[in-house]
# Entry
Amino acid sequence: MSESPEPSVPDRSSTAGGSRADDSPLEDSHGDDHPDSGEVPESGIDLQTVVAEIEAEAQRRRESGEFPPELLEHLDEEFNRFAPLTFRRTGIDGAIRAVETAAFINVEAPTSSARRPVALVKTTIKKSTAWYHLHIARQVTALGVQMTRPLRMLNEELQSLTERVGHTERALGRATPALARALAELTSPIPDPAVPAVVEALGEHRGRVAVGGAGEGRIVSELVAAGIDAYGLDGTTITDDVELRTEPMLDHLAACASDVLDAVVLGGVTDTMSNQDRALMVELATAAVRPGGRIVIVAADPSEWAGEVDPVTSDLSPGRPLHPDTWNHLLVVSGARPSAAFRPQGDTGPWLISASVR
# Structure
């Protein structure tokens, strides 16, 4: 028995945004009914209109029954196999829907064949085993649906968390990139006249000392010259002379284990931090410094800082310099014992606040 030819398989591009199945030009198939799409590119072809026409034509041919359903299903499976990342456009919810769709088992196995006896055998097998396939399919489909429910719950929690984080960031006044650059310019390193006072405040602590707001590393060089094993964070450059890192001090302290540092020195990096970040900085520093170690803070005077910055930067800054009493309060709350604060340069310049970790 001779086999009849298989039905022609339409190219995926003819039904999903590629060339048209027939050879007639686009303008001939639509004539004067071509919709007005507004502005047309210089090439004279409105790509959005062309894509819309191709999608409409593909949908029409699908609904007309021109192609067998099993052929269309096969094409969809092949397309999804080679382009499965559609959830990049639809988000997590779209990915979950894709899992639910994939979990559905279609028990309607194709029985068509070019040979009539083969088709009859397929049909007989399908009817005789339909009850079994349906039983298995229901269980597997139910399992897939149950597995996606926790994913949907996690997605809802993630969306809620994202909204809360967004509200929190807006409430804390996160700096814009332009404001961040302006604030970075105001983050001055520890002035040279204050370096001897920092060395004196460290006392006999010559072990590992982390220095925040190190800038170009001059303060680190001075501490190393005094025999202190110091390294800098928030560096603006990298040098071979001293150990200087661009890593933010807050991130570094968060990654430090407990009791690994002999002391912590915080420079001007804290002046424009938010109150939440400053409190966290002190808490992390206290945890990273061993008992008996020191925390030294060099902070700008609030009144002098207000006179040095422009009104816009001052108003939009996430935070402003704290008074020495406020720093002492944060140190006490974190478990440190502060000493008397003073100004190394006399009546002007920054304050030096130090504390011993209990």
Observations:
- The longest strand covers residues 289-299.
